[in-house]
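Format notes (please read before filing issues)

Several people have asked whether sequences and structure tokens are stored in separate files. They are not. Every record keeps both together, in the order shown below: the sequence lines, then the token lines. Line labels are part of the format and must not be stripped during preprocessing.
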Amino acid sequence: MTRVVLVTGKGGVGKTTTAAATAVRAARSGLRTLVMSTDAAHSLGDALDVELRTAQTWRETTEVESHLHALAVGAHTAVEADWQVVRDYLLGVLDAMGVDAVVADELTSLPGAEEVTALAALAHQAASGDWDLVVVDCAPTAETLRQPSTSTGCCPPNGACSPCCARPRRRPPAFRSPAPRCCSCCGRGAS
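Then the structure lines:
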């Protein structure tokens, strides 16, 4: 089973250095290691002294040294086959929010798509069987904390509740934590 280590924190506290050092140490001890950056700054390549650009696909890793590969993911890290995985996930999120299936199918862009792509890439890499360890150099805390909450909002900014407040909400499969409270504009769904 692949172990995943998330290196998080505020900007400038040494996340990238810690992630790179952890990954190098693990690889040199014989573990098949992937170090993955979800930070838009992508300074991981500098820390590892390799040219590391945002990957076009989730499988596009850069070999750093024996047992160590790196991957930088962003909003454009996908190809048509990979987009179907993300699209299926987003359709599940939209269904859980009560969005009509036809409307959900027509949506091509969704706030939080970059965060969903990063989570999907991590899930793909962890499940691939290629790695003993995946070390994730996360974006600064505020951006990283937005990732699991991308699908939890249910009311638009104008305060008018969407249909999801009127029915029990299902959590998407990737999020197994307790269901969040509904937003404050209606109070429905609050526990």
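For reference, the curators noted about this record: The radius of gyration is 18 Å. The beta strands are 3-7, 33-37, 62-65, 68-72, 133-137.
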